[in-house]
Design a protein that fits this description.
The chain is an alpha/beta fold. The chain is 41% helix and 14% strand. The protein contains ten helices and ten strands. Helix 1 runs parallel beside helix 2. The radius of gyration is 18 Å and the shape is globular. It starts with 5 loop residues before the first strand and ends with a helix.
């Protein structure tokens, strides 16, 4: 079962190959869906401070009754936090909201503030935040550290100047949008790629070539999309608040042929 399969991060820690994404999941729904996901076998939950649902995620963790070390939690530092002191404060507050002694993976949510200057690199600011991550990692508060939405240039800044290199880069990867150069750069530098929006927020179902392919394998488009990302060697983060789909997203015991993977890779948005 995909629940039990893992990747190994550059620090030697393992990470489950699929996660329940909680973007756009309310704090109230988060408690229910996290408990359900952990109950049926999920071992990886992805949240973020900006999602505003860490309290609910923490309640779902507790309600599941699972031992904390038996599952993996990812959260993210908001994009607008670009100083060492603020990063330290937000990491500690994230731990408090989820009532957990550690977070398995913490990411910088975006290299630039949401409303920042698009022409500014924010290299120094990201290094300051990364220093806070390194400190929390060395203190055991974070078991792994990484980034999200970082380009090759953003990653190179950390690789060239940081003490600990990023272990993960969470980016948008789905049928029709595969940033090959960035994925290859991450692979060469032993940075695991996590794929958010594997179903392109539902847009894939509008493409006949994708729905035809899913029909060929007798699976929903969402399952085809998750399997596609897995076969790229990435970690998909499907999200849903509906129990049927939460379970369905992990029923991936089929393999897309090399010929069909090639056809899917030729599809453009």
């Amino acid at each position: 079962m995909i629940y039990r399969e893992t990747y190994t991060l550059s620090n030697g820690n393992t990470i489950p190959k699929i996660a329940l994404g909680t973007w756009q999941t309310s704090d109230e729904d988060a408690e229910r869906v996290v408990k359900y996901a952990l109950d049926i076998g999920y071992l990886h939950i992805d949240t973020a401070i900006a999602y505003g649902n860490e309290v609910g995620v923490g309640k779902g963790m507790k309600a599941s009754g699972k031992k904390r070390e038996s599952y993996f939690i990812t959260s993210k530092l908001p994009a607008e936090i670009k100083s060492y002191d603020e990063a330290v404060r937000h990491i500690n507050e994230s731990l408090e909201r989820m009532v957990t002694p550690y977070i398995d993976l913490m990411l910088i949510h975006w290299p630039r503030p949401w409303c920042g200057d698009p022409n500014k690199t924010y290299n120094e600011e990201n290094l300051a935040v990364w220093k806070a991550f390194e400190g929390a990692y060395e203190a055991g508060k974070l078991k792994a550290i990484g980034v999200s939405n970082f380009s090759v240039e953003d990653l190179q800044n950390l690789l060239d100047n940081a003490k600990i290199k990023p272990m993960v880069n969470q980016i948008r990867v789905h049928i029709g949008h595969v940033p090959h150069d960035l994925i290859e750069f991450c692979k060469v530098n032993d940075i695991l790629v996590e794929s958010y929006s594997p179903n392109a927020t539902g847009r894939l179902s509008a493409k006949k070539e994708i729905t035809d392919m899913a029909a060929k394998y007798e699976v929903p488009v969402s399952q085809l999309a998750n399997r596609f990302d897995l076969q790229l060697g990435t970690l998909p983060l499907p999200k849903s608040v509906h129990e049927e789909y939460i379970k369905q997203n992990t029923e991936l015991d089929f393999v897309i042929s090399d010929e069909d993977m090639k056809a899917l890779l030729e599809i453009k948005e």
